[in-house]
Amino acid sequence: MDSLYYEEFDKSTDHEDIPYYESSKNQIFNHNFVYANTAGNFPAGWQKGRESKSAALSWEEDQNQKFSIKINNRSPNHLAAICQQRSYRVEVYEKQVWEVGAFFTAHHQFTATIKVNFVCHSSTRASYCYLNFLLHPGQDYYCSLLTVPADADYAYLELGTKDIATFWVSNIVFRRAFPVARLDADARGRLNINTVSSVKKIIDPVTVTGDFEFRRIVRDVTEEVVAGPELKASGIQDVLNMSTYSFCVVNQGEADAMARLELSPNGINWMYAAGNDDVVPAGQMKILVPDFFLRYIRLNYWTESSATTYLSIYFQGQG
Predict the structure, then answer these.
(1) CA–CA distance, 232 with 136 (Å, rounded to integer)
(2) In this model, does residue 180 exceed pLDDT 70?
(3) Is 205 inside any structural domain?
(4) Largest CB tally within 10 Å, which of 102, 124, 144, 218?
(5) 170 and 39: one domain?
């Protein structure tokens, strides 16, 4: 199982068997909260988020000896969250593609947020990306792909919600999707190829019996961004197993914005989808659907003036 995207897992799945928990792939220290800090009252490497003053956070262990962090947000419009301590940050390089995700447990429907903070060593300037997921009752894994922006040297994560809600985080994933660790490549993705291996035998057919469960893939991702004169891109979506999908852009500001779709076969080389650039007038929304298919898709956005405007970018799909 080496796919870049995982959705709609059976809630009875034993998460220990899922490949993205392998320490060689997941770069988050204490991602399943098993190690205590020096005071013994919270997981090592984690702390309360900056905006979480009115939120209650607790470190819990269930009857199966699995740990989670319970977040109880009592004040709306503030991100009640857990945050990685900067000493446990993850080194990144521009144009790398990373999978970001977490196991959330919820009792009702609301929106959870993963905030990815990117920091540059040579300056105090920081950038960030908000990934919003609509949670459903039960436990599920929610994730998305994103590309590291220019001048970013390391990243650290915050996970929480701006809604009034109570939920649990039991595992966090931040792993490099390109270049993948199992390839002989440097941080920029340049491959070192010295030998070529050939397949010497075709695997014999295997007869499989028993009952099979069909699992429908559903993805609902939201990004809150600021569009300006500089061309920017949304998070990357892997649509290989999607039969229907689209982007929707809602212009929340007072300046017109421009948007266009880009497609890629590998997440590295990109080309514009067919059609002209779409204007998203201030206070209005636009739905964008590609005319052609490639595995990866993202949305470019900018303004044609010096003004800036706030955009809500929705990606929704099913397979």
Answers:
(1) 30
(2) no
(3) no
(4) 144
(5) yes
